[in-house]
Amino acid sequence: MEMFIDGSWRAGQSGARMEIFSPVTGAVVDTVPLGDAADADVAVASAARAMESWKRLPMAERVALQKKLAQAMRDNADAVGKVLNAELGRPLAACIGEISRSADLLDVYAEEGLRLQATMSLGQGAGEKTIVTRDPVGVVVAITPFNYPITLLMFKLGAALIAGCTVVAKPAEDTPLSTLMLAEIFHAAGLPAGVFNVVTGDGRGIGAALIEHPVPRKVAFTGGTAAGKAIAAAATGTLKRLTLELGGQSAAIVCADADLDKATTAIARHGFANTGQFCYRVNRVFVERPVYEDFLVRLTEKAGKLTLQPEGGSGDLGPLVNEKIFANSALQSDDARARGARILLGGARVTGPGYDGGFYFPPTIIADATQDMAVMTEETFGPVLGIAPVDSAAEALALANASRYGLAGFVFSGDLARGLTLAEGLEAGSVWLNDIHRSSHYVPFGGMKESGLGREKGRYGVESYLEYKTMYLSYEVPE
């Protein structure tokens, strides 16, 4: 594939290309341009031209078009899902589901656009009015990761388009194909040329060029904390607005009076979904001692039923996307084992026919984890859970908060008052009590501390792409 700029496919100006590999087989799936600063200039110029008319399009028309784009996603979910399956390795049904659920978010943002309002103060004197309105922030650079490339793009694109912004997206090096395909689908559905552009390349090349470019007024990024800090530092040169959804090392607290069946079902489901490759998964669990061993038995049994999908076969989980992501799971498992933890499940790469071509790591449960182990302090981004016993819920809360991250938290308690107290005490942007659902499209999503800046989804997401403008009006009052 080529880059998609100004409504058409465009080769990179340097001619350099990069290969996209299947995580399942290791074979080359396709190639895309390895873009550079020259390509960034072309894409940004296209977005800036398109914004002059896009921001003036009446909100009702933008809403109608966005709903049309959402339907186009649903109509093409199978085709885009197959491409996503090829580049990400996640089982096909889950890839198709990502496309459909992402379309729902476009609809939510469209609905929020209809609720945006200007206000007029009633405090002025005769012949004076003050109106507070909202303007689109400007051209937006959207930088997305590999793990949920379409969902996390829609977090940004859906809000930006409704706000009146145009977008230049740079997908992750591992998974650009589905985003490129979606850009063509959106253009065919009626999105004007230049409103949504997709460039390809690496972060240090075209990514840095986009962030440092003087024209874009906002960067929306989902990815690792180190990269987010570098983006924030680079964006200060032009005072770009930022939305950063960064790393997580989310903790679950399981009280002695919790429903252990519900807790272990939720944690097994959420901790290992997408082979652990998402930011707000359960990463570490603190369990009160009276139910610690029972919890471990139940969780190990449920996680042990999850299967890996080999090449040409079926299963619940795919491989990790590349060697770098795989290394986190392997290193954290080895570190815990060396420091005296019990590995109750998994803990080593799966090999053999159907598995040798990819980086397959099974669901892994590390018992008796301690705070000197990497699994309890650093993001894993893989299917590894660290479990530690605690003497009280207060101790669990203190340990959960003793982290530089603050993306999500989870509490299980049969006592509602205690559960709510713990949920309120967790230093995290989202907290679940007594079950773990998908994050809602209607409420804010984002992190505290080093897990990021700003919020996405719902009206909160749209507002982050708007600037307040105050207009002071004066007129002669008729006699």
TrEMBL record:
Identify the domain of life. Answer: Bacteria
Q: What Pfam families is this protein classified in? A: Aldedh (PF00171)
Q: Among its keywords, does the record have Oxidoreductase?
A: yes
- Keywords assigned by UniProt, alphabetized: Oxidoreductase
Domain Aldehyde dehydrogenase, chain residue ranges per copy = 9-470
Q: Which residues form a coiled coil?
A: none
**What GO molecular function annotation could you give as one example from this UniProt entry?**
oxidoreductase activity, acting on the aldehyde or oxo group of donors, NAD or NADP as acceptor
Q: Does the keyword Ribonucleoprotein apply?
A: no
UniProt lists the family membership as follows: Belongs to the aldehyde dehydrogenase family.
Name of protein: Aldehyde dehydrogenase family protein
What organism is the protein native to?
Thalassovita mangrovi
**Higher taxonomy:** Bacteria, Pseudomonadati, Pseudomonadota, Alphaproteobacteria, Rhodobacterales
